[in-house]
């Protein structure tokens, strides 16, 4: 459970069409990549899916149910979690406490402490458990953000540039983490600029350019698509 189906979604800012009839899907057990140049509309699409922005037209369907009119809190209760491009940790709290705050909003509050230990294992940050969030490197902070999203045990996880600022080793560990989340049955949607990570970890890709989906399919196919090459090379 946790399938996502977006159809015909448009968002207009002033006169500017940030999203124009966007359709995309994401399946449980897969990492679905959402890529495209800066300003393409990726974060705006995440806002629409998570309920932070109402589209001017189109539908968002979670698990076969139309949630277009539901607010963000009700979508979260249906199993949706996301991270933001801008980091949103509690800077004065330790890594452990940042995770604990999230786990206490999850499905099994009594086991929150236990859940946090499990997440620290999976993100590989036991050694930083007692460090304040604002003392972390960007790469480590991104891992904590993902850990926080994991703490609510989401069915659908939206990650907005989670690897930005990570070093090579962190990115490698991160790729393994994404794979294991998908293997657990989570639907993972990844917005990411690191093409090495995208190509190695994604099962399917959707490419946004100027508010429109210009290609969808397996990574090997999409990377050879003429429209995708043009969008990235600016031809
Ligand atoms: P991406 O995440 O792919 O870089 P965004 O979704 O952030 O792209 O932005 C898509 C387009 O919408 C850009 O042209 C951006 O300037 C514009 N935009 C995003 N948010 C707003 C907003 N709150 N008000 C006006 N324009 C916005
Ligand atoms: Mg963005």
Concise summary:
The chain has helices at residues 42-50, 72-77, 95-103, 112-123, 138-151, 168-183, 195-201, 219-222, 226-233, and strands at 4-13, 16-26, 31-35, 57-62, 65-66, 80-82, 156-160, 187-191, 204-209, 212-217. It is of the alpha/beta class and 235 residues long. It has a domain at 4-87 and 155-233: 3-Layer(aba) Sandwich (Rossmann fold).
What does this structure look like?
This protein has helices at residues 42-50, 72-77, 95-103, 112-123, 138-151, 168-183, 195-201, 219-222, 226-233, and strands at residues 4-13, 16-26, 31-35, 57-62, 65-66, 80-82, 156-160, 187-191, 204-209, 212-217. The protein is of the alpha/beta class and 235 residues long. The chain has a domain at 4-87 and 155-233: P-loop containing nucleotide triphosphate hydrolases (Rossmann fold, 3-Layer(aba) Sandwich), CATH 3.40.50.300. The strands form two sheets. The protein has a six-stranded mixed sheet, sandwiched between helices. Helix 3 packs across helix 4, helix 3 packs parallel to helix 5 (138-151) and helix 4 crosses helix 5 (138-151). The protein is globular. It starts with a strand and ends with a helix. Bound molecules: adenosine-5'-diphosphate (ADP) and magnesium ion. Magnesium ion (MG) is lined by residues 42-43, 85. Adenosine-5'-diphosphate binds next to helix 1.
């Amino acid at each position: 459970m946790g399938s996502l189906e977006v159809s015909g979604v448009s968002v207009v800012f002033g006169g500017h069409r940030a999203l124009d009839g966007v359709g995309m899907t994401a399946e449980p057990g897969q990492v679905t990549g959402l890529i495209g140049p800066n300003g393409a509309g990726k974060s705006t699409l995440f806002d629409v899916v998570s309920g932070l922005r109402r589209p001017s037209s189109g539908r968002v369907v979670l698990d076969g149910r139309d949630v277009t009119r539901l607010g963000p809190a009700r979508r979260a209760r249906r199993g949706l979690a996301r991270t933001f491009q801008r980091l949103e940790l509690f800077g004065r709290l330790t890594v452990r406490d940042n995770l604990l705050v999230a786990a206490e909003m999850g499905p099994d509050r009594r086991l929150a402490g236990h859940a946090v230990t499990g997440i620290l294992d999976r993100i590989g940050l036991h050694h930083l458990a007692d460090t304040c969030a604002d003392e972390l490197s960007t790469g480590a902070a991104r891992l904590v953000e993902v850990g926080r999203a994991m703490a609510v045990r989401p069915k659908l996880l939206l990650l907005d540039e989670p690897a930005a600022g990570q070093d090579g080793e962190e990115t490698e560990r991160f790729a393994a983490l994404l794979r294991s989340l998908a293997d657990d049955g989570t639907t993972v949607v990844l917005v990411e600029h690191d093409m090495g990570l995208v190509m190695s970890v994604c099962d399917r890709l959707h490419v946004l350019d100027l508010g429109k989906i210009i290609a969808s399919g397996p990574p090997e196919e999409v990377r050879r698509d003429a429209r995708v090459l043009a969008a990235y090379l600016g031809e």
